[in-house]
Amino acid sequence: MQKAGQLNEDGSQASPKRDRKAPAQNVKAERTKPAEFLREVRAELKKVVWPTRPEVIRLSIIVFVALMVFMGAVFLLDTIFAELFRTLLSTGRE
Questions:
Q1: Sign of the C-alpha dihedral computed for residues 48, 49, 54 and 60 taken in this order
Q2: Secondary element (H or E) of residue 81
Q3: How far apart are CA 56 and CA 90, in angstroms?
Q4: 12-63 pLDDT, tens digit each
Q5: I want to staple 55 with a disulfide (CB 3.0 to 4.6 A). Which of 42, 51, 77, 86 is the partner?
């Protein structure tokens, strides 16, 4: 607990530190103007490594195939559970 600052070296409880910064007095001076914001956005977008056309096509195909697999699995589970409940409900009436 001493390493965490909760105890002094002699083992007594440490007083809480009050080193928090005061809130900014003039918030308006720190605000970014819209034109500057757009310049910064353009500069950041220039740093982005955009995927090539073949990468986009390949990844889109992977997503589409995964979607079809999961859709088929949900359809299969839904069909199995529907038949199971139909069977359970029909045996109770006879």
A1: negative
A2: helix 53-93
A3: 50
A4: 777 766 555 656 565 566 788 999 999 999 999 999 999 999 999 999 999 9
A5: 51
